[in-house]
Amino acid sequence: MKSREQYQRLTHSLHWDPTYVGDDAYIPEEWRTACSMPDWKKFNDPFQILFEDYIRIQAEKEDKFHAVRDAGARFGHIGRVDPRWVEAMKSFNTALTYSEYYNYRGHVRVARFAPAPAIRIASMVQAMDERRHAEEAIYQAKDYAKHHESGFLLPKDRITFFERHWYFQGDRSFFEDLITTDPIEAIIGTNLVFETAFTNLLFIAAPAAGVANGDFGFGQAHLTIQSDETRHMALGQSVARAMLQFGDTNLSLIQDWMDKWFWRCHRLLLAVVSPVLDYFPKKKPISYKEAFRRYVLEDFIEGYVSELSQFGLQPPRHLAQALAEVEHGSHTIWRSLYTTRDQLWFDVHQPTEDDLAWLHDKYPAFGPSHAAFWRAAADGAVVDADTLPMICDLCKFPCTFPEPATAKAYPVDYAGQRYWFCSEGCQWIFGRESAKYVRSNEPSALLLADKDPTWVAQFLNITPDGTPLGGTHAPDGYFPAMPVPATI
To answer: What is the uppermost EC class here (predicted)?
Structure first.
């Protein structure tokens, strides 16, 4: 049997419309897509991968990944990774592990509730991809912990920190929002925006920095991941194109979803990836600004989105603000981390003279806006934070953008409560779905108001006298960034 015929049998021939239960029982209303298509069965995944081919291809990738791991351990490469890059992995690896795991959970849900048989099959395969990616990150964490000094979160502490430490709450908020959406919105947010526009920052630019600083295992792992991302991107692009061909309602939905997830991706990647390119590594092959312009602006906006303008799709609503923030973003994030370094389990260093020269060269705004802070720190000035920053009630990052001297917070009054946002983008997203976000977005002061000082100190990973706990358990109970239904 030819592969195309096999694929048709795998998707279309296994679909049925149940007659023994109604639509509400088959797909609950909250999980039905708002998009429409004359016949969902006619949608085809462009890759049309069969399970037996998928297993063979993934096995080959796993063999290559573990061969590099084994070589790194046997010849001592993993122990010679630059110490500053090792510090980056103490935070980045945990964030990557659970980000991939959340994507796995999200695509399991899409595989259950998407209206098109081909989307369900493709999402099931993608869920297996994301699970494999998370497992590879865990293998890397084991290698780091084995060959480097303490500071890596132990397995028993990793999920605790991801769920409860303030450093990870922006990451959690993003992915818990993503896995509680319309199934087609999940495809647009994950496959079209996150993976087409932004994952090249994660899986090309960041691995290049890793390899430049001696971390060959990190580079090989992300090479195997990025080859999967190509398939994921194709699904997102084909779904977007199919939806845009059928009516203005779909256009309005796709535009709104792209606008929302472009801003949420921008804010997350700026906070998580920009320090990994601009500050952590000693050798810096590419700046975050250069990578953003190459992969996000030129490839995605000027390439793919421009091509879809024939259907009425416009560039993301807050693109101009994102471009302006990129000039300052990594510097703002690193300054914030430095002032709160006593609450962190990884080292946040002062830039060296070589670092400062590179930053001046790559970022014209660095000198006027950020250099004075580092001169003061080098001269012994106390720059540590003496108060908690205002946290955005949507993205969970501090309201310090675009840079501390000109930062703004944007208020919204809703149901008798005032909420604050770090940007017009987060303010706009909250306005679209206020009821969704207010269920969990109580201001942090209210969340901690009835807790005793010891509990608050544990929640923030510090002791009452300000000494970092450095890897002990956070307290039982936490406040989820977004309610996740039990059906997932």
So the answer is: oxidoreductase
Integer Cα distance of 4 and 2 in angstroms:
6
- Among 267, 360, 359, which Cα is nearest to 321's? 267
Cα 246 from Cα 282, distance rounded (Å):
50
CATH code, 335: 1.10.620.20
Q: Is the peptide bond before 18 cis (omega within 30 degrees of 0)?
A: no
pLDDT digit string, tens, across residues 263-292:
999 999 999 999 999 999 999 999 999 999
pLDDT in tens, 298-335: 999 999 999 999 999 999 999 999 999 999 999 999 99
Instruction: Give the range of the structural domain holding residue 168, as residue numbers without chain letter.
Output: 3-378
Which residues does 61 contact at the CB level (< 8 Å), separation at least 6? Answer: 224, 227
Q: Tell me if 414 is assigned to some domain.
A: no
Q: Is 437 in contact with 430 (CB distance < 8 Å)?
A: yes
In a domain, 401, yes or no: no
Answer for the pair 264, 395: CB distance below 8 angstroms, yes or no.
yes
Tell me the C-alpha distance between 208 and 192, whole Å: 23
Inside any domain, residue 257: yes
